[in-house]
Amino acid sequence: MKKKLWCILAFWGLGTFIVQAQQWTPEEQLELFGYCEKGLLMKELGISEETANKIGQINYWATLQKLKIEANTNDTFATANEVNQEVLKKYKALSITGDRAKGLISRMNAAGCSITQLRFNKSYDTLSKVQLVAAYKTKFRKKIIDQLGVNGRQADMIIDAEAWKQKESSVVAQIADSDFNKIRKSVQLNKEHEKKLALIDLTEQQKIQAIEFFIQNQL
Question: Tell me: the pLDDT tens digits for 49-92?
């Protein structure tokens, strides 16, 4: 159920940092695989974590080979297609064949997912957390109670968690987009926000609604 929270995409005209796969080193791309594709593949293909990790290592190997081809230093493969054919063989050894295997190749260097995204509103930079909480309560407290079916205490905790996330996000946003640490910090922040929501005694659906609410509603 936890993965469901990260199926929410934040493309609502806010300041959203979205990863670009081609920026990263093979090692960083493997780390990104762990944040995003790994869990998705376990669910989609019904595979174990061990098998998912092996897929990540295969993709890492393929990325290294393709970089060597680009640098004219690969003594084994001449083209990316040759590498892909070898990848299919490696997938087959994991009992992944046909369209499923070809599909894995097409998303080998996927850009990212919701948990790696940094969502923030730049217009909130001038507000302290206390001011942001007060503004949220004035405009949205009753609406949150009505739409999410929560009580006043829960609404206040949801608002406090969102205000915390907005202020922390504005700090992480200062990291250069080309710095992979921005990805790491975004993941850490999103996971911490999820922990805060977990303390509010919400259903999984209410957690999703709480995240969506502040994507759709701005001061």
Answer: 999 999 999 999 999 999 999 999 999 999 999 999 999 999 99
Give pLDDT tens digits for 130-182: 999 999 999 999 999 999 999 999 999 999 999 999 999 999 999 999 999 99
Q: How far apart are CA 141 and CA 177, in angstroms?
A: 34
Is 179 in a helix, a strand, or coil? coil
CA 156 to chain centre: 26
Domain that holds residue 62: 21-106
Tokens of 120: 């923030």
33 within some domain: yes
Would residue 120 count as lying in a domain?
A: yes
Determine the Cα–Cα distance for residues 114 and 215; give it in Å rounded to an integer. Answer: 13
How many structural domains are present in the chain?
2
Q: What is the per-residue burial (b if ≥16 Cβ within 10 Å, else e) of 44-74?
A: ebebeeebbbbbbebbbbbbebbeebeeeeb
How far, in Å, CA of 110 to CA of 36, rounded?
9
At which residue do the structure tokens 């869990």 appear?
Answer: 39
132 and 78 within one domain: no
Helical packing angle, 26-35 and 181-198, nearest 10°: 10
**42: Cβ contacts below 8 Å, ≥ 6 apart:** 48, 49, 52
Q: Which of 84, 106, 128 is the last residue of a domain?
A: 106
Q: Which residues lie closer than 8 Å to 164 by C-beta, 6 or more apart? A: 129, 193, 196
